[in-house]
Amino acid sequence: MSGTRVLIADDQALVRRGFRMILETEADLEVVGEAVDGEHAVTLVSELRPDVVLMDVRMPGVDGIEATRRISAAADAPRVIMLTTFDMDEYVYDALRAGAAGFLLKDVPPEQLVAGIGEVMSGDALLSPVIMRRMIETYLDRPPSARQGAGLSVLTPREREILVLLGRGRSNAEIAAELVVSETTVKTHVGRVLMKLGLRDRVQAVIYAYEQGVVSAGSGGG
To answer: Cα–Cα distance between 105 and 90 in angstroms, integer?
Structure first.
């Protein structure tokens, strides 16, 4: 059976081996390769065509952020999940801007690792409340985007509402419950928002929402 193809990129052999052992217990996941640094990861993505890349942030030579930027430049790029630790929050914004689909901690429980891969494959973003908060704080320390205010006029009132909720990190199920509509309807709206704004995924929608000022720090809610 053909499952999700995963590439593991980390300069520590023990980390790579640990993730491989977890993933190989899942029938629908296949580890197609291991990269020892960012340059190696870019090469293997081109050769092996994985669906998901587990990418360490800090590696010698080409780091995970630059590797993610290069990988994500392709039209049919795989989903990249950054592997991080709490002391690396300063990399969050740059990694998401580079094209990462989200973050997982290196000591993530096996079931959360497997679930996380499933989430990004379904189009969701892996952004925990802690990471979301750090991303917002990092963004607020930066100059306003030159694009601010542009593009929002193409959205209908409902689509703009969807963008706000995406910016607050809401899942499709949470948006559906809040707006009292079906998840199928939410997926349709999300797809239209991404298409109209030229955004690749939900992570870019989150960043865009903050850049445009439709969501601000402290508005995430519970």
So the answer is: 14
